[in-house]
Amino acid sequence: MKDQISSTICNNSSADSRVRVKKLVISGMLTALTVALSGFSIPVGASKCFPMQHLANVLAGVFLGPVYGVSMAFCTSFIRNLMGTGSLLAFPGSMAGAFLGAYLFQKTRKLLPAYLGEVVGTGLIGGLLCYPAAIFLMGKEVAVFFFVVPFLMSTLAGTLLAAILLAMLRRLGLFSYFERLINE
């Protein structure tokens, strides 16, 4: 009996580590893809709208969960800043959206809350979190809601792209296939 329990524990931890490795690899691939597409941005006011980040946030949130989604958003923002294609404002916006979208999907298992979480997290919460970053870290004098409209425009575009992509995956039966592939 003791050997059977020990064998079950080893098999479960082995399966858990395989899932973690898969999620880490997919997170890295999403980061690389998002950084590679960082040349596609739309200037809106003082910020750059980067819809590919929001597309990746939704995908990571739905398939990988909050920890990997936020980690992917952080790594993407960090690399883009190192390359000079991003700004410090990318951190609070992308990470808040990635967390809220992933958290709401994890709690409801529905896509609409994931989309709304990304939009509210990035557009409203992230836009408001950029205010102190702009004032204290970048030395810019801006109004409290200055970043909300550009962030909302960016996240709406990226979230719409994610919704279209996920609808196509569902229609083709690939959505559940990807979930099984990642979580087995």
TrEMBL record:
The keyword Cell membrane does not apply. The keyword Transmembrane helix applies. The chain crosses the membrane at residues 24-46, 58-79, 85-105, 112-138, 144-169. Keywords: Membrane, Transmembrane, Transmembrane helix. It holds the Pfam family ThiW. This is Energy coupling factor transporter S component ThiW. It comes from Lacrimispora sphenoides JCM 1415. The lineage of its organism: Bacteria, Bacillati, Bacillota, Clostridia, Lachnospirales.
